[in-house]
Amino acid sequence: MKKILLACGSGICTSTAVHKKVEEMLNSKGYAGQFEITQCKVSEAPAKSPNFDFLIATTMAPAGLQCPYVNGIPYLTGVGTAAAEEQILALMAE
Q1: Which residue from 75, 38, 81 is spatially nearest to 59, judged by alpha carbons?
Q2: Is 53:4 a contact under the CB 8 Å cutoff?
Q3: What are the residues whose beta carbons fall under 8 Å from the beta carbon of 77, sequence distance 6 or more?
């Protein structure tokens, strides 16, 4: 079971939109039931990061992060989503 941390400025708005897109993508790639996504404020991410396999954030990577970082902005803009998906799928396969 992969534990994914998903962060945005408030932990509610953009992370909810990205959560749905990442969940749909992972399920379509055969990972249904193999991951758990937890949303938080980006300010909380460094403290929470040791307990997660990776972070997807709609902001720059926060200082003090202790897990791999994936840029979630492509899920909002629609530009560069293939690269973000490749990164997420590589982390899921580890």
Answers
A1: 75
A2: yes
A3: none
- For the record, the structure tokens of 50 come out as 């040791």
Q: In this model, does residue 10 exceed pLDDT 90?
A: no
Q: On the CB side of 20, how many CA atoms lie within 13 Å of its CA?
A: 6
3-state secondary structure 48-86: HHHHCCEEEECCCCCCCCCCCEEECCHHHHCCCHHHHHH
| Residue 51 scores a pLDDT above 90 | yes
Which residues, 6 or more positions from 49, have their beta carbon under 8 angstroms from its beta carbon? Answer: 5, 55, 64, 65, 66, 67
Give the CATH number, domain containing residue 65: 3.40.50.2300
Count: domains in the chain: 1
Average pLDDT estimate for 73-81: 94
- Overall residue count recorded for the chain in this entry: 94
Q: Which domain holds residue 43?
A: 2-93
The residue with tokens 């720059």 is 60
Predicted pLDDT at 11:
74
